[in-house]
Amino acid sequence: MPDEMARPLIRRGGGEAGCSGRLEAPASDPGAPVVGILGTGDFSRSLARRLVASGYRVAVGSRNPKRSAALFPEEAEVTSQLEAVGLADLVFVAVFPEHHSTLAALKPSLAGKTLVDVSNGLSVNRDGPSNAERLAELFPESSVVKGFNTISAWTLQVGPRDGSRQILLCGNSCSAKSSVMQLCRRMGFVPVDMGLLSSSLDIENLPHRLFPCWRLPALCTLCLFAFFYAYNFLRDVLQPYVTAGKSVFYKMPIQTVNATFPAVALVTLSLVYLPGVCGALLQLWRGTKYDRFPCWLDRWLTSRKQLGLCSFMCAALHAIYSLVLPSRKSAHFKLLIESKQLQEEDVWVDAEVWRVELYLSAGIVAFGLLSLLAVASLPSVANAVNWREFSFIQSTLGYCALFVSTLHTLLFGWDRAFDPARYHFYLPPTFALALVLPVVALLGRLALLAPCVARRLGLIRRGWERSRHVRFARPDDVCCNGLEDASYV
Amino acid sequence: MPDEMARPLIRRGGGEAGCSGRLEAPASDPGAPVVGILGTGDFSRSLARRLVASGYRVAVGSRNPKRSAALFPEEAEVTSQLEAVGLADLVFVAVFPEHHSTLAALKPSLAGKTLVDVSNGLSVNRDGPSNAERLAELFPESSVVKGFNTISAWTLQVGPRDGSRQILLCGNSCSAKSSVMQLCRRMGFVPVDMGLLSSSLDIENLPHRLFPCWRLPALCTLCLFAFFYAYNFLRDVLQPYVTAGKSVFYKMPIQTVNATFPAVALVTLSLVYLPGVCGALLQLWRGTKYDRFPCWLDRWLTSRKQLGLCSFMCAALHAIYSLVLPSRKSAHFKLLIESKQLQEEDVWVDAEVWRVELYLSAGIVAFGLLSLLAVASLPSVANAVNWREFSFIQSTLGYCALFVSTLHTLLFGWDRAFDPARYHFYLPPTFALALVLPVVALLGRLALLAPCVARRLGLIRRGWERSRHVRFARPDDVCCNGLEDASYV
Amino acid sequence: MPDEMARPLIRRGGGEAGCSGRLEAPASDPGAPVVGILGTGDFSRSLARRLVASGYRVAVGSRNPKRSAALFPEEAEVTSQLEAVGLADLVFVAVFPEHHSTLAALKPSLAGKTLVDVSNGLSVNRDGPSNAERLAELFPESSVVKGFNTISAWTLQVGPRDGSRQILLCGNSCSAKSSVMQLCRRMGFVPVDMGLLSSSLDIENLPHRLFPCWRLPALCTLCLFAFFYAYNFLRDVLQPYVTAGKSVFYKMPIQTVNATFPAVALVTLSLVYLPGVCGALLQLWRGTKYDRFPCWLDRWLTSRKQLGLCSFMCAALHAIYSLVLPSRKSAHFKLLIESKQLQEEDVWVDAEVWRVELYLSAGIVAFGLLSLLAVASLPSVANAVNWREFSFIQSTLGYCALFVSTLHTLLFGWDRAFDPARYHFYLPPTFALALVLPVVALLGRLALLAPCVARRLGLIRRGWERSRHVRFARPDDVCCNGLEDASYV
Asked: Is C3-208 in CATH node 3.40.50.720?
């Protein structure tokens, strides 16, 4: 569902969406500062529109003014590159980086002015120099600011979506940066100063990233899925076929999948809370919090949110699959056959009834809690809570969710783990495998709650260090809703 | 669920929520600038509270100071209009526009000062002049700024919800505007400069719009629903009644609806991706991207997000309806009757079993993908991703969703499309109708992926034009996560 | 799912997440202003990282520079406290409040400088003075600004999540405040001026609150749940056991719960709209809107959003529970038994079929509407709509939801309310109880829509007062998407 501006007024400022709109052309302010734009591509046009809509005067430098003029709002003055540069103190360079050299002629007239490089590389550039740095070499007398490359022409046209759109800037001249920042703000964007031009390479590489922090969690979820699916296939489909020649391959699309998702969801959820426990144990063992965690633990800790959401997705799919079960024709047929073969003996098995009622209700509660956690991790919701509320949700509620889903699995298993008949090919039932990690995580958490351990941990997290044998916290350590807790949640 | 501030501290700043709160009255800053307010209505009161809470000194001009004083926080000085205007350089005019004339007496003392017009019309005003423009005529020596009319008194009182609340401003004097913008920022709002006072009419009309960008998509969804419902009613309810006298009207509330929603969802989803294909073909045919799309295509392109969400809603309702089916008494009775009439022949039909298992699982996957797309189009989520991630979700995942839901429909249909018995009244089954557009969209997309076509399209989107027969992109076209792709997603 | 930055670039700026990242060390700007930090705790370190990443030069004052240096990014100059204070005009005080006294030695060199107190109390401090006020007493020649305590070290490290992160500030010196505000903005945060230092106590207490606005609604929902569960247990489980000795305790985990949730959801939903009706009636009775509502009504009005969300949660759980019903073994067994006992008489009961089909479809529609309301109350969505759209959703759609869910309950009840056999222990069926409040709310709303009443109410809400017997609105009352409506939604 391609996102676009909810506020038609501003969108109408864009030509793409035009066909209507006095705002297409709000006369720009004669007193307003002039901004120059070199280049007449899509980005230049969107930028010009936004600038005009924000009350700036715009001078566009084109190598072919006549041709280009038609493409710009009539308030924008489309002239030669030299003229445009002459009019403005702040000039956007919106030409392909490979063509920056074509601007050499403008060097003298650009001296002492601010150049904003909005370009992106075609691919990730690891070793630099960045386009912006090359531009700065080209125009040593001008102060180059990198920015706007993380904003798409589309976003520029429709305007800041909800006033929280960030523009990352960097540059070596403070004054140049602040003038660009002011411009950003007048357009309704939120500028963020990223420091010196040396950061420009990172800023240029930003638009090329594709969910980097999702890779690890997604991969691990996929592997878990593959493993458990194969395992279930072996136990539930292949085994009856091999041993009894019973063909139940029709189970593969739904039943086997639905036996896999809960296992994946439970294990992934336990992976959300294990690193916190590891971190705490590590701190206890080291007797300080001032040594960095090992790298793998760091990455694990920072992947918890994504792991949690993966776990939630699996749980949700498990819920849907389970609800779908009774609508399958196979279930329908099974029922008919059963009712046909039915002898006079009583069909009602009380234990079975209780088991199902209990594990179903535990499952529903667990799913409800997971949904709360998922909603709470939406950016706008997470922003509205303070640290204490956040850790209450993610830590307290999170552990409740882990506990209840473990309970759900235990109730589902009932006494089957001890029934040899369940060990097809000598393989333990899936739920038994899935229970290992969650139980470890829960026991670990319990151990940390033991008074002595908890006290010691509390001290360490307030800055106490065994090595220094001081009982009180370091005076130069502020007690604050702190980072230390981040490894704790 | 009437929305209100999550942050009670600030909310307590409001009287409505009062009953508590030292913040009800934070002594205001003697050194702070004075802001004047003309008018003592709700808006004035909320404004006064917010200004005081932001450390401003407030002078309220009332025609009846004694009476009004009680309504304002005690820090606000409630005096005569003349006095209030005398104290402040920046004056909010919060009286009914029809009563602006009553302020004529203040003309001399308002000269050279900044007037902020916060008024709204009672209805949409198409031809102007706007209230602000009329106010500017009334006070030629003052510089009028339009703004704050898009903010409700309630929002003012509870404060900016999450720091991303925009205030649209316009005015002819730059200095006046920037002083108002600074004031906005100190209150925690995000000011957006909309240019000259000529934009004020649009800003005044903003609060009157009611989901303008939802009209078209919602209408089209409704029409599709009406059509398919009628069609299904004809085939599944009326036909058996007319031909066999079999009364199955009980199907109308659920079964017929549940046969309608999937069709609507699928067609609407295809409508999300068709315009992109059209746009691409148009660009290929024209051999350039620099000609504007026809108006209908523009509007279609900008409605894609809403169409997608409509499609998701229908899909979600379809899911719920389908899950509800087995809990209906009718299903229950049917089953009992079937089990009663059951003869000795085998009830198990393998093809049926496979068909259902397959289309159900395809359906679940499709719904999962649609849910992802829906979540990704939440403002706060969409803001957190860069262009590449955004187009990955909306384009790649989107087409996957379209493909899988088409597959779901095909599997549901199985071989029925070729079974004459299915053609009640010679009408083809619903799923066959619903499949037309999606298949077109998918084939169109496939065609665009053909190497030669894709290359050509890529060139065009980098600025190449057949007319100019140049093989390389225009140097004055920046390669940027660009608008061109917007028509592509 | 512990939340963390979506933007790895900035996160890499943090050590916790480090292990990668040129941004770990962006050379800081020689021309940039110097910011001092006293204290070397987690918060100081995160703050230093963020400041360096935002292009500031940082001087950290430690009582043990050698030891601490390792903990800070290499751009940050870690020196003695005295030296650090000497270098900077703006100094963050990030030491435990109980150790503020240890800074006394710095008094002379801190004179005339801006001190930012970032500390929090260990617990809620009701009567003051706040840490900041005590710090101000300690350093009378410095101007103290309170702030940053609502931001966690973690948030500082990962940077502003989506550019809408607020930092609440207060202080007595305007210039000091604005310099701190500018610093906030350069870091990408949204500063909010909360007035004089007297507000610091509230700001310090903020991080200690735990969902204050959820207490009342959650409590009321829980009580309703307890009551209705007990009521259902009595009627559906205990009664058959006592009277007929029939043990149906297996109903407790699911069936009884599922009979409870709808009742709770419906009553809670009616509680969302009752206060609006009360408010309107009160205004009609008083003949003015300028008298404050009684306290209980105020609190009720401000809890509506939370009540609504509670109602939605109950409705969602009710939906899941109902969908789960047919998958229970008990349902399975019941069906088999039924099909076994089945005599030749016809099983099909038309009334039953229609009843179920109708109440199910009404239920689905009601749930769909409630979901819309829930989504619309997400901060980021609520921010994107204007007042008219907001009140359309929350008022118009809200009443539709209330009406349809009442209908759902009525259809579910069918004629049972008049069937004496349903009155176990002479207790009326649950749905009858649950219907009382919703019906009241709906009738109240209807009454308010009566032309005469509506006209009068409209007048009052535009500022008319019976006492003054004026027919037209007060001229000094701006017609604006106003607060008055807030009590109306």
From this structure: yes
